[in-house]
Design a protein that fits this description.
The protein is built from eight helices and eight strands. With 335 residues, it is of the alpha+beta class. InterPro entries: GTP_cyclohydrolase_FolE2/MptA.
């Protein structure tokens, strides 16, 4: 006996299949009418009837425990930022999270975006983020909240000798958090790209030239430092000031506009400021340690070696109690 004979005994008419979205070959018509009413406008009474998952009870799936961070990532909008050249309109990429009590099913995530738009006409700084976080906390009654806005920041960089200039773009972010007791903390993070010429390779190249008359080129490589600073309460640190800190500390920022005289100057500059990855970390420490606006900092450096098939890396922190830890391990992100 076949499966069909079991399911459909002889003499028993088969039941036509239902159609849900499209008509089928048996002639059945869809049971669901698909239509969008572009003219429908919900009034307050209608909206009051809409289901709200935040009002549910006994709806938690899994363990009924608190969640430290829940929110949105990848929300984008144009934001205003200050610069030495005037106000800039840049694309901001937002991560916004809050804490969630054990008894709560979830949060209203759209409120993060709506709160952002109420500040859309302001020039964005870490202080702006603190006000947004505080406003969101008041709306949803959450304990802790944090926001991070990432953007690509353009700043003019002059050439070394030709008198030209061009825009260097820096991956940057502002971040703010507010704890349950109302304590606000503000952070700035910046990626800085520079050249690192190896001191050991430079010594060996000179030895080859001096002892054997052999022409040798010491190895150097594009390198990157990711620096995160926490600001003192009430202090203001324009992003261009942090960029200038790193320019002074490392001295060999990669160039934008380059003619032959600039390329020669860059070779001389690398010769004057040879550095291991250990040197880079300590140079940044010395520069940032003296800025009273910065309460804490962490610098992660990666030298993308041209000699080796791997990179040389270092991490340094200011070392204050309860401050940043040297636990950065995302070095592949610096490549």
């Amino acid at each position: 006996m076949t499966a069909n004979e079991i399911l459909e005994p002889e003499g028993t008419p088969s039941t036509p299949k239902k159609a849900y979205l499209y008509p089928n070959k048996s002639g059945a018509q869809p049971v669901i009418a698909r239509r969008y009413d572009a003219d429908f406008r919900p009034d307050d009474a209608y909206k009051a009837t809409l289901p709200d998952m935040t009002e549910t009870v006994d709806a938690i799936e899994g363990a009924p425990v608190a969640i430290q961070q829940v929110g949105i990532s990848g929300f984008r909008l144009p934001l205003r930022f200050e610069s030495p050249q005037g106000e800039l309109m840049l694309e901001g990429r937002v991560v916004g999270t809050v804490s969630l009590d054990a008894a709560e099913k979830g949060i209203n995530m759209s409120r993060v975006m709506r709160t952002f738009y109420t500040f859309g006409e302001e020039t964005f700084t870490p202080d702006t983020l603190v006000r947004i976080v505080q406003a969101y906390q008041q709306q949803v009654g959450t304990l802790c909240a944090r926001l991070k806005v990432s953007f690509s920041y353009p700043a003019l960089l002059g050439s070394l000798r030709s008198g030209l200039s061009g825009y260097q773009y820096y991956a940057a972010s502002f971040e703010a958090s507010v704890d349950a007791d109302g304590t606000a903390r503000r952070y700035i993070e910046l990626d800085f790209v520079y050249s690192s010429a190896c001191p050991c390779s430079a010594e060996l190249a000179e030895h080859a030239r001096d002892v054997r008359g052999a022409y040798a080129i010491p190895h150097s490589q594009r390198s990157k430092a990711r620096v995160k600073v926490e600001l003192q309460a009430g202090a203001q640190l324009p992003l261009i000031d942090l960029i200038e800190h790193l320019r002074r500390a490392l001295m060999t920022e990669t160039q934008v506009m380059v003619k032959r005289e600039d390329e020669q100057a860059f070779a001389e500059l690398n010769g004057a400021y040879v550095k291991f990855v250990e040197d880079a970390a300590r140079l940044i420490y010395r520069e940032l340690h003296g800025d009273a606006r910065i309460v804490d900092f962490r610098a992660a450096c990666s030298h993308m070696e041209s000699l080796h098939s791997h990179d040389a890396v270092s991490v340094i922190v200011r070392g204050i109690p309860g401050g940043f830890r040297a636990d950065f391990m995302d070095f592949p992100d610096l490549a």
